Amino acid sequence: MIRPTPRLEIHTDRIAENLHAIVGQCTEHGVQVAAVTKVLGAHPALLAALPNTGVSMVADSRLTNLERVAAADLGLPTLLLRPPAPRTAARTVQVADASLNSSLVTMQALSEAAEMVGIRHGVIVMVDVGDLREGVWPDHVVDLVSQTSHLPGLDILGLGTNLACYGGVIPTADKMELLVDLRDEASRVTGLPLELISGGNSANLPLMVSGQMPAQINQLRIGEAAILGRNTLDRSAWPGTRQDTVELVTEVVELERKPSIPQGERGQDAFGQTVKFVDRGVRLRAICDLGRQDVAPEDLTPVDPGHIVLGASSDHLIIDVTDGDITLRVGSEIRLRPTYGGLLTASTCADVWKTSADER
């Protein structure tokens, strides 16, 4: 079978290996893992990696992705990562068992929606401890929990926070201790157990394994570390994981020897940039069927160490293949490994075909 390009190939078994390793590490520290599926759009090849790994929940930021999770019937509770908009309350309580929230207005809407269909919806109240993304500021946490504690149809599960995303703020023991202290005060005032403290994402793993994360933190929401095997603080390989889990495959549509420097008077490129070029002399250049409309070229690393990604227009990826290990021709495939950002854009691009790596 000739498979189309460009395409993402997902190695289910390798991601499952990574999940086993990370869940094992987390279990040693009393931490449950909510597996985050958003970077691959909850693709079936990813969902197939989740059973029997020990993950406690499936988490995603998009309701459409959680609908795919529901269709897969994994038998795991689901968590909506992005605080829902009030107008999506009815759909949220139908698709997600719980959601992250920081707005009283939204939680009132969720309460009404849950009551209307006779179900209970779990809520994790998000606290902003410095990254400046979602979350109520610390001095408002107790008031918000108190205001939501009597809303019918809702179960206030606990508190959560998020770091190292928007502001790049690194999780520290002080940040986590603040979250624990806020949980304890909110629990004292409301009488709610607030047993769940969702301390963050893959960026918390270094703090956890160092033994500095407070023992009360009992959940992490893990995506990149499991799917790409990366320490998200510096993108180094995370211990016990592999990084060859997803590959982006593109096809060569032109193969020519050309100079390294454009010839003629130059202005801006199609994206308003003035690009600097390195003169390597005449080189063998592959033009491939992948462009910025699909993924940013700076988010791609060739599997062949002799290949160099030079750049891209909207529809064409240019790769210097002069020193490659394999002889190429027009119609040959070139494999690349995406960063988290590259994987996110490629997996949501309709023109990039997604498939299990086993379907060859």
From TrEMBL:
Domain Alanine racemase N-terminal, first and last residues per copy: 10-226
Signal peptide annotation: none
Record keywords: Isomerase, Pyridoxal phosphate
Coiled coil: none
Cofactor: pyridoxal 5'-phosphate
Gene Ontology CC: cytosol
Gene Ontology MF: a single term: pyridoxal phosphate binding
Name of this chain's protein: Alanine racemase
CDD domains the UniProt entry points to: PLPDE_III_AR_like_1
